[in-house]
Specification:
By secondary structure, the chain is of the alpha+beta class. Helix content is 18%, strand content 34%. The protein contains 3 helices and 5 strands, in the order E-H-H-E-E-E-E-H. A 5-stranded antiparallel beta sheet has the order 1-3-4-5-2. A hairpin with a 4-residue loop joins strand 4 and strand 5. The relative contact order is 0.21.
């Protein structure tokens, strides 16, 4: 799990003092990108092999929209990883620990030069800290067709 503390500032809120959805997505993406700092095995492999992670999809549930000057904590954790894809939750909490935004996302592992999907070796995958899936609605529960529901073959 990786986390970043934030505050709703004037540049992140709308004219009514509510956190803009775009700003919430930026907080989520910043936290997701910085997650690699907590995974030295993956970080080293990506640096040495010229790979990166690319956001492929993100589903969000808005529970409550934070307001100007609220202190927030953005947390991200991986709940599953395959050779070419990773799945994570990224939640934003208020200062009392109440959920404001719930998300799950799928990321693809790609070569930085070719832009093509690339597999991560099993020995690197085994170093990733896997945490339980957080409580929210997932596509499989909505009976929608997504690769994760029916097994991404990678």
């Amino acid at each position: 799990m990786y986390s970043i503390d934030n505050i709703v500032t004037t540049s992140t809120c709308d004219k009514d003092g509510n956190l803009k959805l775009f700003s919430a997505f930026q907080m989520m993406q910043d936290c997701s990108e910085m997650w690699i700092e907590s995974e030295p095995g993956v970080k080293t492999f990506f640096e040495e092999s010229g790979m990166t992670q690319l956001l492929a999809s993100r589903q969000v549930e808005i529970v409550r929209v934070p307001r100007f000057k609220e202190r927030l904590r953005t947390e991200t954790s991986v709940f599953d990883v395959k050779p070419m894809f990773g799945f994570r939750n990224t939640f934003i909490y208020d200062s009392d620990g109440n959920v404001c935004y719930k998300t799950w996302s799928m990321g693809a592992f790609v070569d930085r030069i070719s832009g093509k999907l690339q597999r991560i070796p099993d020995e690197v995958l085994k170093t990733v800290m896997i945490e339980p899936k957080k409580d929210m609605t997932y596509p499989c529960e909505q009976r929608q067709l997504y690769p994760y529901c029916y097994g991404v073959s990678a």
